[in-house]
């Protein structure tokens, strides 16, 4: 069956609008992040990067800084299968100051952990994963950086003027007796991103002029 030129033009227009809508949707998602890291080097067809966003809490002047991990398949061929088990600490974040010194964690880790699951990434697709959940928050103004469900939680007071940089590794192993096609195993070294300073944001409770 032959398609007329007018129908072909209409079909191309609809495809263009669909693609544009998808791209705008992706842009809206990433506009929510206040910091986006660089992509890591690819390992066995997979690469990753860190993203950071902030959400207000019920405490005046206190903000939760939430870390996300984005994984992308750059492998041609079969889909990549990743065994994601939070209890095995696959995501290990590190916070350093401008001098490269490690910052000690100052918050209790989250009490809950997601169950292990398989992540499936076809070629040129990506997944966005929240790496941790807040369980204990300070009661003074500042920024809580939540980097992982087990470990990786820091508190930056509002008056702190230092620069802080978050980096991480992501590691996955293959469980015994698994027969899925193209299971991913390896470690990604995720480049550091700079955490926005708490005192760089205007307090929402501050009266306007």
DSSP strand (E) fraction? Answer: 35-45%
Cα end-to-end separation: 69 Å
What's the β-strand tally?
11
- Based on CA atoms alone, the radius of gyration comes out at 21 Å
Q: Mean pLDDT score, rounded?
A: 80
Helicity, as a percent range: 10-25%
- Series of secondary-structure elements, N-terminal to C-terminal: HEEEEEEEEEEE
Report the uncertain regions. 14-29, 201-209
So what's the overall shape? elongated
**Domain unit count:** 1
Q: Give the class from helix and strand content and strand pairing.
A: mainly beta
Note the main sheet. Answer: 6 strands, mixed
Helix count from the secondary structure assignment:
1
Briefly say what this structure is:
Helix content is 12%, strand content 36%.
Quickly list its features.
209 residues, mainly beta, six-stranded mixed beta sheet, three-stranded antiparallel beta sheet, 11 strands, 36% strand, disordered C terminus
Question: What would your notes on this structure say?
Answer:
The protein contains one helix and eleven strands. The chain is mainly beta. The chain has one domain. Strand 8 and strand 9 form a beta hairpin.
